[in-house]
Design goal:
The protein has helices at 2-14, 21-30, 32-43, 55-71, 151-165, 188-194, 243-246, 253-262, 285-292, 298-305, 315-321, 364-382, 406-419, 433-442, 467-484, and strands spanning 75-79, 83-85, 91-93, 97-102, 110-116, 136-138, 141-143, 172-178, 205-208, 219-224, 226-235, 241-242, 327-334, 345-346, 349-358, 387-396, 399-400, 424-428, 445-448, 464-466. With 487 residues, it is an alpha+beta fold. Belongs to the peptidase M20A family.
């Protein structure tokens, strides 16, 4: 009797919900080859949303996902977003958005998973070592465009739901899948706003499955930076000029532009625009401990990317600089000669491009004014007769959640169960506009729980997902749904 009691106690401590984890995990292990085949089928569809000629393939991908969700017993609405006007004036149909429901029990919490099924362009001529649209397994990795971003992550969720359904799906699940994420999610924000009082009305938690860890240690993302993109234009003549005839005779546009760009930040990366740091929240001791516990090997990162030296000396300083403080990066100069060889031309007009990554409390309108006022002041001080213009091109707000919300606690418990490690709590340095849109439009709890590896190369050559992470990630989503039913 004592042995039986101890066994039951052990099971209660290691199992969330009414079904023991080992049964769910065993099912996932036994079906992993089937899961890989599904990913192979999905990778084979060249759902490149950047190319209008391949729009039908994006739609085909959405239809394949619809079929998979229906096999799970889900009800699916394929929402028509209408037409998209191309730069040449032609119009083509936007791919449908999937809004799906799996189980509907008013006594259970409801979680909505978001993902996307479109991909970035990929050709083997780009430098791939395998055909990008043929899933290739080697050295424990599954290579193919979309393997990590985001088809593999979406499938891991669906596979987890299937495994749980063999016993019991402990929560209500909704799914939102789109096919235009790689081209700014055209039409999605309007759809979320329109369906806020219907599809999202009974949603308690929203989980974005389109993120990566920053190391081999599993991570949960609870914040992202925003972004402000600017163009600085300087013009000195009506046409390009020969430097032998005009060099030294006029104020060259390129010289003015380089001067302006050089005044934006100092050699330590500190932004020189007045007031830019005023809105940054002070670092708390609680937050500081999160950075101290995060796994991030500076030497490994430097070796991988060929970086000689970081500006920041410690791991904690680097992590904070890449996520909780604003940064400014210069991206290019349009109109300047950049081809191989030499060309002694004075460009008539050049356009510099730079962006500022924003953190919470930084308002787009305020940053826009700060940048414009500062550059106008510096150009006036230069006393150049050239024409000058600053243009705010586009921007996205930052996003920050409370990492102690119930679904975060459930995710941390799930990671501990599956991987035997405490989760890294991550603030991403990049920008994920959909997180901000969900938060502002629905008011729900938002969490980014992805299973992308730190070296998966999304958008790059040889994109992949580790087979181990793909399968263990499936277990993670299953464990998360179980844990979510108990918080």
């Amino acid at each position: 009797m004592t042995v039986l009691v101890l066994a039951l106690l052990f099971m209660s401590l290691t199992t969330a919900g009414s079904v023991p984890s080992d049964q769910i995990f065993q099912y996932i292990e036994e079906h992993q080859n089937e899961y890989v085949q599904r990913l192979k089928d999905w990778i084979a569809i060249e759902s490149d949303s950047n190319d209008p000629e391949k729009r039908h393939l994006v739609t085909n991908m959405m239809l394949l996902a619809e079929e998979r969700i229906r096999t799970l017993g889900g009800t699916v609405e394929m929402v028509d977003l209408g037409m998209q006007e191309l730069p040449n004036g032609n119009k083509i149909s936007l791919p449908p958005v999937i809004l799906a429901n799996i189980v509907k029990d008013p006594k259970k919490p409801t979680v909505c998973f978001y993902g996307h099924l479109d991909v970035q362009p990929a050709e083997i001529e780009d430098g791939w070592s395998t055909e990008p649209y043929i899933l290739t397994e080697k050295n424990g990795n599954l290579y193919g465009r979309g393997a990590s971003d985001d088809k593999g992550q979406v499938l891991a969720v669906l596979n987890a739901i299937e495994a749980l359904q063999k016993h019991e799906l402990p929560v209500n699940v909704k799914i939102l899948l789109e096919g235009m994420e790689e081209v700014e999610s055209t039409g999605l924000k309007e759809l979320v706003e329109e369906r806020n009082s219907t599809f999202f009305s009974d949603v308690d938690h929203i989980v974005v499955t389109d993120t990566a860890w920053i190391s081999s240690k599993p991570g949960i993302t609870y914040g992202t930076r925003g972004n402000c993109y600017f163009l600085v234009e300087v013009e000195c003549a009506k046409q390009d000029l020969h430097s032998g005839s005009f060099g030294g005779l006029l104020h060259e546009a390129m010289n003015d532009l380089i001067f302006l760009l050089s005044t934006l930040a100092d050699s330590s990366g500190h932004i020189l625009i007045p007031g830019i740091y005023e809105a940054v929240a002070p670092l708390t001791e609680k937050e500081k401990k999160l950075y101290e516990g995060t796994e991030y090997d500076l030497d490994v990162i430097k070796a991988k990317y060929g970086i000689k030296q970081f500006i920041n000396k410690t791991k904690e300083e680097l992590l904070m600089q890449r996520s909780r403080y604003p940064s400014l990066s210069i991206h290019g100069i349009q109109g300047a000669f950049s081809a191989p060889g030499t060309k002694t031309v004075i460009p008539a007009k050049v356009i510099g491009k730079f962006s500022i990554r924003l953190v919470p409390n930084m308002e787009l309108s305020v940053v826009k004014k700060q940048v414009t006022d500062y550059l106008n002041k510096r150009f006036t001080e230069r006393n150049s007769p050239n024409s000058f213009k600053v243009t705010y091109r586009k921007g996205s707000k930052s996003w920050l959640a409370d990492p102690n919300e119930p679904q975060y606690l459930a995710a941390r418990k799930a990671i501990k169960r599956v991987f035997g490690k405490e989760a890294d709590m991550i603030r991403s340095g990049g920008t994920i506009p959909i997180a901000t849109d969900f938060q502002e439009l629905t008011g729900k709890s938002i969490m980014l729980l992805g299973i992308g590896g730190p070296d998966d190369a999304p958008h790059g050559q040889d994109e992949k997902i580790s087979r181990y992470i793909y399968i263990e990630g499936t277990k993670l989503y299953a464990a998360f749904l179980q844990e979510l039913s108990t918080v």
